[in-house]
Amino acid sequence: MDFSTKILTAFLLLIFLSPALISANGGDQRVVEGKYLINLARSPFTPRVGERTAMLISFVDLEINKLISEDLVVKIRIAKLGGIGSAKREFLFEKSDILVQGGVLEFPYTFEDAGLHEIFIGFALGSNSQKIYESPDFLMDVQGKVAQLNINRFIIGFMLSSIVGVILGFVFGFWVGQRRA
User: Fold this and answer.
1) Do the Cβ atoms of 30 and 119 come closer than 8 Å?
2) Which of 42, 60, 59 is closest to 51 using CA atoms?
3) pLDDT of 102-128, one tens digit each?
4) How far apart are CA 30 and CA 34, in angstroms?
5) Which of 78, 136, 149, 157 could make an S-S bridge to 93, C-beta 3.0–4.6 Å?
């Protein structure tokens, strides 16, 4: 395989893998007391105001490196951090006594405000509900709504740029024709 074939193969491979990489979900992990791992995956990776964010929270026992099979009782709290330089937080959501079976919790949430949000996850094993494990917080930077593309603006912009392109093409063509004459 010569050099140009290798480059072409790598380029084609990159093109085919790009959509998969762009649409991949992201996640964060937190270790709790050295025994358990909480993984918080979300889609889309960057949440937006007013759009549903699908979160998948999994609980792993690090000693056996498997999902916790025992029933769990989970508490989720979501807080919005204050403005620049402010350490204040305002709790926007709190739900306790969520029963989780099989070590995985699906949790949809729609953020109402842009900015930095903290997600706090606590859980207790069904066999010992008195011992509550609290994870370090998960941070999410929620972005504002995406401005809707106004189709009229798009059409007008497209038409204007087309007209300017045609005019410049004629001017350039006329100029080149004059230089050859």
Assistant:
1) no
2) 42
3) 999 999 999 999 999 999 999 999 898
4) 10
5) 78
Based on the fold, state whether residues 129 and 156 are members of the same structural domain. no
- Answer yes or no: do 106 and 43 share one domain: yes
Quick one: tokens of 114?
A: 């842009």
Identity of the residue numbered 83 = G
Q: What does the pLDDT look like over 133-165, one tens digit per residue?
A: 999 999 999 998 876 666 676 677 777 777 877
Domain count, the chain: 2
- Taking residue 155's Cβ as centre, other Cβ atoms within 10 Å add up to 10
**Distance between CA atoms of 64 and 58, rounded to whole angstroms?**
15
The span from the first CA to the last CA of the chain, in angstroms, equals: 50
What pLDDT does 62 receive?
A: 94
Is residue 32 included in any domain, yes or no? yes
SS (H, E, C) the chain: CCHHHHHHHHHHHHHHHHHHHHCCCEEEEEEECCCEEEEEEEECCCCECCCEEEEEEEEEECCCCEECCCCEEEEEEEEEECCCCCCCEEEEEEEEEEEECCCEEEEEEECCCCEEEEEEEEEEECCEEEEEEECCCEEEEEECCCCCCCHHHHHHHHHHHHHHHHHHHHHHHHHHHHHHC
Distances from the Cα of 144 to the Cα of 23, 84, 115, 177, angstroms: 20, 17, 8, 52
